[in-house]
Prior knowledge:
Blueprint: H1 2-17, H2 24-30, E1 36-41, H3 68-83, E2 88-93, H4 97-107, E3 112-113, H5 125-129, H6 136-146, E4 155-160, H7 162-169, E5 181-185, E6 193-198, H8 200-206
Parallel strand pairs: 1-4, 2-3, 2-4
Antiparallel strand pairs: 1-5, 5-6
Helix pairs in contact: 3-4, 3-8, 6-7
Amino acid sequence: MNVLCRLALIVLFAGISGHTAADTPELITSLRQGGYVLVFRHTATDDSQRDVYPFKFDDMSAQRQLSEKGRDMARQIGTAVKDLAIPIGEVYTSRLNRAVEAGKLISGREVKPVDALTDSSNASASGMANPTGANAKAGQAVRHLVDTPPKAGTNTFLITHKTNIADAFGKEAGDVQEGEAFVYKASSSGPSIFAGRIKLADWNTKTGK
């Protein structure tokens, strides 16, 4: 049984990390049909800033914010999504402003901040640098959102943090880049199915920019 479990885990991680660039254009095209959940890591931030914990959500000076590079990254994704006519349904974000701002720039609309997507490292620099995927409660909360089917003909966007992504999908997912999205296909009969990963450059390639 232990051998079978280990083999199952190997297959799972291969599915997460082995998605090839050749599949990405087809995946992005499929998003036009709706029915997917995209889990984004927020875009680039100003590393000279630090979060204050317990978090002060209404105090921008107590949070690390998006850098100008990060805002530009989010706008690029948003422009590509619009140009490709990808339908957006619900947009949920972390309660930290960098995720809220990224979500607004990507989707072009207001967003819904939720606890489930808020940084599970509790502002720990070491936790953010090397997420272990050890917070089972946080991971379950993210997976619940991922497994909730989008409204018909739309895609759900989730904007969160590296730590939460590792909690939900395993520490191997901790290599997620800023602005990268893990994409899941909704299922009516069980958990969503991993479909691939989309990096910032993939959006630009698809739109010919």
